[in-house]
Amino acid sequence: MLSSYLLLPVILFPIFSGIILHALRLKDRKAVRIYTMTMTLITSAAVWYMILFCSPEAAPFIRFTDDFIFRLKFDECGRYFAGIVATLWPLTVCYAFGYLEDDLRQKAFFGWFTMAFGVTLGVSMAGNLFTLYIFYELLTLSTVPLVMHTETPEAIRATRTYFGYSLGGAAFALVSILYLTTGQIRTGSPAATGFFYLLGVAGFGVKSAMFPIHRWLPKASVAPTPVTALLHAVAVVKAGIFSVIRLTWFGYGTETLYGSWGQYVPLALAMFTVVYGAMRAVREVHWKRRLAYSTVANLSYILFGVYLMTKEGLIGALLHMAFHAEIKILAFFCAGAVLHVNHREYVTEMDGLGRKMKWTFACFTVSALALTGIPPFAGFISKWYLLTAAGHAGTVEGYIGAGAILTAALLTAVYMLSMVRRAFFPDKGADLSRNETAKEAGGWMLVPMIILAIGIVLTGLFPGVVIKSAEAIANTVRAAGGEF
């Protein structure tokens, strides 16, 4: 087995690769692309090699105090998240090459993009909550320039909102971690423990976009599509989910929280957000913002499973964490292709586009069916597990949560499949002339979409490996203690 001390070079490699890209005087866009893809593929290969062969033992690097140690560890939960990130990141880089083909600031973009890759891996490889918090904050700093990349007034406002929410969440999360890491959980009252846990939920809940701290996510859809795809599907929001899982299952412990108001409050908010996000998506006519509100809803599907605080709920949450990532990143890729090539960004402008962009809308149809939860696509598997977990919980909140998921699934069919219908089967009398000259995106954008569509079908038909990984994580959770 490889030493866990090798995790640090894996994290630092893309971070320093991004810094070096900023410093290099590369004016040729092809050279920037070659450099970026090479560093990305090397990093992804190294991550997968570590997933397969790294020791699960912790590797301490810096001891600040007895309670605060910078430590890395690659347990089952970390490997799971890292596998999602390492698989989807190269596809996003490839897509970005096509999306940003005429961008004059590609070097800066891909520099920050590559650095964010390393920081996200740091979140997955953190060996305690203190280390996770460090990378969690670095993730905000490395993604802020990406959200603000276009430097339009709208992008600047969205960045301020994102940064403001993240900064406030950071303060709450830090207080919660201090309470846990310093051992106060062992002496504090149940009421105090519930309060400090909720502070952590609020802090990490910012990036997981749970109501009422979700507003930054739809606003951030003004960023370039490769950024929104990562923000809404992989790096930022899933880092938030991953941190909540760490805090709940590996930190405070479900034995401490189960049946208390520390469980009921976030569980109620998650159930409300599931329906609220879906309803807002139905009303939204801007394509990317519609997908953003869909993300708000689907992240709370995952949080609902986490806050059930049963192993069945955790398994369902982990499955939806993986499957939603591939489904939603594909949906954003399709929206970005239409926007970039044909400059259409509203649902009302999609009439007949499916006849001109057959490959793009075939892929979008796959994502729409999967997100709705129709078998045999991947989304059906995770939603089935969540519904089963809700039923097995045998509680009122479990049944209410199941009703919320089914309601949101119906609304998902409305806001996703209505776009598919409009693209392929426009209403009689619809003006199709404006889309007569529409065309497909280039290979850099189209190939990742097709690969993702195939992946969604395959993981739906053969979900065994992902299910076993989720079950393995559920079997390794600890009651409490703040250490992984």
How would you describe the overall organization of this protein?
A hairpin with a 5-residue loop joins strand 1 (about 60-65) and strand 2 (about 70). The longest helix has about 30 residues, at about 310-340. The chain has helices at about 5-25, 30-55, 75-100, 105-125, 130-145, 155-180, 190-205, 215-220, 225-235, 235-250, 255, 260-285, 285-310, 310-340, 355, 360-370, 380-395, 395-425, 445-460, 465-475; strands spanning about 60-65, 70. It has one domain. Strands 1-2 form a two-stranded antiparallel ribbon. It has about 475 residues and is mainly α.
Structural classification: mainly alpha
Largest sheet: 2 strands, antiparallel
How many strands? 2
Our measurement of the CA-to-CA distance between the termini, rounded to an integer number of angstroms, reads 19 Å
Count of all domains: 1
Shape: globular
* Radius of gyration, in angstroms, nearest whole number: 21 Å
Strand content bin? under 5%
Helix content: over 70%
| Low-confidence runs of at least 5 consecutive residues | none
Taken in chain order, the helices and strands follow as HHEEHHHHHHHHHHHHHHHHHH
Q: List the total number of helices.
A: 20
Give the strand order, joined by hyphens, for the main sheet.
1-2
Average pLDDT, rounded to a whole number, is 91
